[in-house]
């Protein structure tokens, strides 16, 4: 069917996300307006049932009714068949090529933004690593027994989390230049980064480190929001 052919063309250009394709084909020189009264009646009855069930007092405007899917259309005098596909395919592909160009432009801007966020994230990690060495050393001096020092390090050492976050940040930056769909991969990496930062926040005993971790978590959340726009 024409719908299946259009779907295949879209899937060949877009690998992730939801695409709504609307095509209006007017087959008559002087098309007439067609109002689907049966469908409108079904809409009105369904809305009335909802009003009665939830005790809602409302009035449905004519503007709202005619904008419901399938309620209003243009009726022509020729049935659209498969013979229109060669011409329709050209138009569909032109629209898809424009879409791809626009997405590529937005993608470059998004990549630049993500790189900036990653650089800032790595800067935070460097500061935390330096700060951690000092506060841990000062704390260990105050502890009297080896058992206390061992317990303290076990509960508060976030060196491994820092190392893993640095690795994820580098891997994320590398993936930004990979050809093909990368959105799901990047989102998975961002989830791992979020998990490590949560662990760091739970283990941190220093106010300065905790503040940095909160800032990092906010940045990672912003990164994940942007990833929803990436194929």
Any overview of this molecule?
The protein has 231 residues and is mainly α. Helices cover 71% and strands 3% of the residues. It has helices at 2-13, 37-54, 62-66, 85-142, 146-156, 159-175, 183-203, 207-227; strands spanning 32-35, 72-75. The chain has a two-stranded antiparallel sheet. Helix 4 runs antiparallel to helix 6. It is elongated and about 90 Å long.
Q: How many beta strands in the DSSP annotation? A: 2
Number of helices: 8
User: Share of helix among residues?
Assistant: over 70%
Summarize the main sheet.
2 strands, antiparallel
Which strands sit side by side, in order, in the main sheet?
1-2
Uncertain residue segments: none
- In what range is the share of β-strand residues? under 5%
Global shape: elongated
Mean pLDDT: 83
Could you spell the SSE succession in H and E letters? HEHHEHHHHH
